Every structure is written in C-alpha cells, then in structure tokens.
C-alpha cells in the first residue's frame, strides 16, 4: 500500500485509540449525559476504523474487537434512545400537555439506564490498538487500493437505495445502516481526499440525519405504544396521532431528497470522484449508477472480503441524528 495511506491509517489508529481512553477516563470521573455522548462517538469512530481495516485484511482479532465494541455500544443504545425522547418531550410539552405522564416515565427510565451505563464504562477495555496495528502491518506489505472500502460501502448504499419502498420504512433503515459505514469510511480516508469540498462531510451528516429522524419517530411510537399498554389510565391517543403525523412528514422529507446520494461518490472504481468530474451532473451520475445498483439486487457487496458470514445489519442499531462524528 502507498506509504502516505499507511501513515494516515497509522495516525488514525493513534488518534482514535487515544480518544477512547480519554473519553472513558472522563466518563469515570465526571459521569453525565455529555460525557456518555462523547464516549459513544469515540467508540463509533474506532469501530469504523476497525471495519475499514477488516475489509482489507480480515482477521480473528479484529472480529473479536468488533464484538466487544458493539456490545459496549449496544449497552448505551437504550440510554441514548431515552435521552433523545426526553429532549423531544421536554420541548413538546407546552404544545402537547398529554405527554406529561410519558415524560415522567422517561425521566425515571433515564436514571435507571445511567446507573447501568456506569457499570459498563468500568468494564471498558483499553487493548484495541494491538489488533489494529497488526492489521496495518499486514496491509503495509500488500498492494491494496485504500479507497476500496469506500467504493464497496457506496455500492451497498446504492444497492439498498434501489430497493426502497416508501410504504416499508425498514427499507430506508437498511439504507441508513449502509450509509453510516460509507460515511465513516470517507472520514478515515479524508486526509487523502485533498480536493474534496469542505462541505461534503456536513452534507453526508445531513443526509444521514434525514434517515435518523425517521428512526427516532419509530422508536418514539414504539415506546408510546408500550407505555399506553402498561398504563391503561393514560389516554395516549392524541400523542400517538401527533407522532404518526410527524413520522409521515419525516418519511416524505427523505423520499424527496433520497437521490442526493448519487452526488456523494463515484459509481465505479474507474470513474472520477464527483469533485473531479465537474462536467458530470447529479442526474447523469444517477443514470449511470442505477442500472448497476439494480443489477446487483441479488449480489450485495460484502462488508469484508472473506468467507466468514457478513456482519450483522445492526452495526449501529441506534439512531444518532444529533451526533456529529467529526
């Protein structure tokens, strides 16, 4: 692999493992919502780097690392969902007073989940640099295209985009999961993309947020239904109708902008990157990408070039619209 690419990956390993140690230490000393959020971001960025290297040089230690990091992230998912719902209910209460009992329920739930998260932070290990550096050493001796993980992630996004059914929002969620991997892969190689417009990362974040807001509404509706079932004395119908309408609006907003994804990356490895192909319009990129994506509906790209089973789809099962990994 090109020396510059190796140096960039080496720096990414150093910075991301250090960030995890720093945020874990901070959480143990000053446990709170902001510290937990920053620790989750550090874990996600390290997991993204692991996935990037595992695509090029898969190994059992990297698979073990993924299982461990994913388990820690899963432990925080319920807390994150509860905090997002609390933020929403706090802002919405003046407009929708019927939310009050659900809001109080979420406050109690947050306290319980914070106690559980504190225990998980104490169990967080600091031994992830070893498998990452072993992968980089193996990669140094191989002739690999450092952009291959990004190309693969983007093809998965296009493949799933072609299967979107507005009436089945699970299809949008599948695009969102693939898009996260694509976005995080670009962040890993960003130092190599010197001509990439500054606003590109923010555009990627905004696009992901559109899908995350749909997921947030689905989580909210699911929790409202569970609360109503357990508290028959509370009439939640007005609340439910309100969030059903919000959910539909979020779906419509995404559908209107879903094709923006064609402007984010090249649709084939022999094509120029979007910011290098100034003469190619978004519509032309879309026309070129669609036939390829539709032809691959039965052969989705693999997350790792290996014979092992594909990684679970819920790599990042909890939405994070407020979370900017930068």
Describe this entry's structure for a reader.
The protein has helices at residues 3-29, 33-56, 60-92, 100-122, 129-140, 148-161, 170-189, 200-230, 237-257, 282-295. α2 packs antiparallel against α3 and α6 (148-161) runs antiparallel to α7 (170-189). The chain contains ten helices and no strands. The protein is mainly α and 326 residues long.
Summary?
Helix content is 67%, strand content 0%. It is built from ten helices and no strands.
Please give a handful of descriptors for the protein shown.
326 residues, mainly alpha, 10 helices, disordered C terminus
Structural class of the secondary elements? mainly alpha
Fraction of residues in helix: 55-70%
What kind of sheet is the major sheet? none
- Number of helical stretches of at least 4 residues: 10
N- and C-termini, Cα separation? 26 Å
The secondary-structure element order is: HHHHHHHHHH
Round the mean pLDDT to the nearest integer and report it. 85
User: Radius of gyration in whole Å, from Cα?
Assistant: 21 Å
Number of strands: 0
Q: Beta-strand level of the residues, as a percent range?
A: under 5%
Give start-end ranges of low-pLDDT stretches.
Answer: 306-326
Overall form? globular
């Amino acid at each position: 692999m090109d020396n510059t690419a190796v140096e960039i990956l080496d720096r990414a390993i150093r910075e991301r493992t250090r960030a995890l140690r720093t945020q874990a230490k901070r959480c143990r000393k000053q446990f709170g919502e902001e510290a937990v959020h920053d620790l989750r971001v550090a874990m996600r960025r390290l997991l993204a780097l692991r996935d990037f290297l595992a695509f090029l040089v898969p190994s059992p230690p990297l698979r073990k690392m993924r299982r461990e990091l994913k388990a820690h992230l899963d432990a925080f998912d319920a807390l994150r969902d509860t905090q997002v719902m609390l933020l929403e209910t706090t802002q919405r209460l003046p407009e929708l007073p019927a939310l009050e009992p659900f809001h109080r329920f979420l406050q109690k739930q947050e306290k319980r989940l914070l106690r559980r998260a504190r225990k998980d932070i104490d169990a967080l290990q600091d031994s992830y640099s070893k498998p990452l550096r072993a992968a980089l050493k193996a990669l140094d001796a191989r002739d690999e295209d450092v952009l291959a993980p990004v190309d693969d992630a983007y093809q998965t996004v296009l493949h799933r985009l072609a299967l979107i059914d507005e009436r089945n929002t699970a299809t949008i969620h599948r695009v969102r999961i693939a898009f996260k991997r694509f976005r995080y892969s670009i962040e890993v190689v960003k130092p190599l993309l010197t001509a990439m417009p500054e606003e590109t990362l923010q555009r990627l974040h905004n696009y992901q947020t559109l899908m995350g807001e749909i997921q947030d509404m689905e989580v909210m509706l699911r929790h409202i239904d569970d609360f109503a079932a357990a508290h028959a004395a509370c009439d939640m119908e007005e609340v439910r109708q309100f969030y059903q309408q919000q959910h539909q609006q979020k779906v419509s907003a995404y559908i209107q902008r879903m094709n923006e994804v064609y402007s984010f990356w090249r649709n084939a490895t022999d094509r120029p990157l979007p910011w290098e192909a100034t003469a190619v319009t978004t519509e032309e990129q879309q026309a070129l990408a669609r036939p390829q994506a539709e032809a691959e509906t039965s052969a989705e790209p693999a997350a790792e070039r290996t014979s092992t089973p594909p990684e679970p789809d819920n790599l990042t099962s909890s939405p994070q619209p407020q979370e900017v990994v930068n």
